[in-house]
Amino acid sequence: MRIALAFGVGALFALGLGISGMTNPANVIGFLDLAGGAWNPSLAFVMGAALMMHAPLVRVARGRSRPWRAERFDWPTLSGIDARLVGGAAIFGVGWGLSGYCPGPALVGAASLYPRALVFVAALALGAMLGRAITGDQKK
Question: Is the residue at 140 inside a domain?
Answer without folding.
Answer: no
